[in-house]
Design goal:
Layout: E1 2-6, H1 11-22, E2 31-41, E3 46-53, E4 64-65, E5 68-70, E6 82-83, H2 87-94, H3 98-116, E7 121-122, H4 135-145, H5 151-158, E8 161-163, E9 168-174, E10 183-190, E11 205-211, H6 213-221, H7 229-239, H8 244-249, E12 256-257, E13 260-264, E14 267-273
Length: 275
């Protein structure tokens, strides 16, 4: 399905897109990244945890996003404790190499722990750690964020392994070529483990909230909120789900989506072929 996303709805993109259209070029190679939709049942339907990036961020300022970020070289650590589907299965699902799959899954787990304090890990393949909001765990988050420790080191020290079975794969988007910062991003979904709580203790966001997808979509359409196309499509899919459990159980068709800047009758659009 071909879909156009008008840039007029995303003011922060207009200037960069206009400049690029005047003198098209090839953007930098995209960096691998991972993001996670934490979903739960709300009233009247499923809701998702989101962050609004601070206005000073170089990429996507003041934009509503799911927690996540770029792959770090130490996400490739071979001693990372691992439970759930092996990297070979994730490689087949993510349509990438086994080493890249390990990095992407590790980045998803590390980034959401750094950004919102949710740790998808447990002491055994069928258990998950509970409350990780104490001072010691806050210090571990800081050490990860400042690259003083790796995820593997933190988990080994605590006798934990990442629970890869808690993640479900949702989407694969690549940042358009006109952007100066580009990401090759895998989107996952998960539930916050019992006893844990998603927070906003990250310097990259000025606010966080559990949001009803339909409400944020309405705010985007009215110009009250900035939402990028990948996030918008994921929100639309969640809005159609009957429950968080149903959403997590879905296995949607996934293919790489690379929006292309085009001139349409009513202005510049990002044109994407959706699976």
């Amino acid at each position: 399905m071909i879909r156009d996303f008008p840039l007029g709805d995303i003011p922060t993109l207009v200037r960069r897109a206009t400049t690029w259209l005047e003198e098209p070029g090839r953007g930098p190679e995209p960096r691998m990244a991972a993001t996670v939709m934490f979903v739960r049942d709300g009233d009247p339907g499923p809701e998702v945890f989101m962050l609004r990036r601070v206005a000073t961020m170089a990429f996507a300022p003041s934009t509503w996003v799911f927690p996540g970020g770029g792959v770090d070289p130490r996400d490739a650590a071979h001693d990372l404790p691992w439970a759930g589907p092996p990297a070979s299965e994730w490689a087949a699902e993510l349509q990438t190499s086994e080493s890249a799959a390990r990095e992407l899954v590790a980045a998803a787990v590390r980034e959401v722990f750094e950004e919102c304090g949710v740790l998808l890990a447990g002491p055994s393949p069928d258990s998950v750690i509970g409350d990780v909001s104490g001072r010691d765990w806050h210090d571990r988050r800081r050490a990860l964020l400042e690259r003083e420790s790796s995820l593997a080191e933190v988990l080994i020290e605590q006798g934990l392994a990442i629970r890869t079975d808690l993640l479900s794969y949702r989407a694969h988007w690549i940042t358009p070529e006109f952007e100066s910062r580009r990401y090759d991003t895998r989107f996952f979904a998960a539930a916050v483990p019992e006893g844990q709580r998603a927070d906003d203790q990250t310097t990259e966001a000025d606010t966080s909230a559990w949001v009803q997808p339909a409400e944020l979509i309405d705010q985007f359409r009215s110009g009250e909120a900035i939402v990028l196309p990948p996030t918008l499509v994921c929100l639309e899919q969640l809005a159609q789900a009957a429950s968080a459990a149903d959403f997590l159980a879905e296995r949607p068709a996934v293919a790489p989506v690379l929006p292309v800047l085009q001139l349409a009758d009513d202005g510049a659009v990002l044109r994407a072929e959706l699976p």
